[in-house]
Amino acid sequence: MRTQDQHPVATERPSAWTTAKVFLGLASQPATVWRGIKIALIVTPVLTLINQFGAIVHHNFGAEFFLKLALTACVPFLVSVTSSTLANMAANRD
Q: In the chain, how many domains are there?
């Protein structure tokens, strides 16, 4: 049990700006970017088939299709880069 004289040790947290700079620095490392690209190249065709099956079957390849394809590719790329960067930040914190 803690007595009234015992206080938890306060640790100083970095500012949000410092955290953002560290995050962007780690996220822009070539290994992290390449990992995101590789994941996107694997996952994007699967997501495109799921989300755009009707357009593919009916050969409906207009501007809307390619915009959705580009946005679909961004999702696995950003998820991969974000998760890799957060894992690197956690590893560096320990």
A: 1
